[in-house]
Amino acid sequence: MKLKINSVPGFSLILLLTLLAVFAIHTTILKEINLPLFENKIILAYLVNFIMAIGIFSILSILKKNFESILGFIFLAGSFFKFIVFFLLFYPIYRQDGIITNPEKFAFLIPYFCCLIIETFSLVKLMNNNE
Question: Is residue 15 assigned to a domain?
Fold first, then answer.
């Protein structure tokens, strides 16, 4: 059985492998510039972004048949939801000392943008799939 990026299992596998590779690169860079590897809730940020991306794509897959004309708006609502989660979960932690440092920003934004790119590409494939 061939997994396709426009299916939930295919999307999940591609997302997982991509995030694992990006996480490895991210922590390698942190190590090379002598910054702590697992501070700034980096593991939680990757995990939360992974789970939310799968959830959003699953919802889009389910709603494709009956609501194809508004999938883009549903996708945007999912992105809005991600920012709400960021402001509720991560922002208070990052602002505890009064400033948000670059490592804190990147701990959330790198997995966020990786997921966003894969979600966007997958949504296009999902919408172009006529099955």
Answer: yes
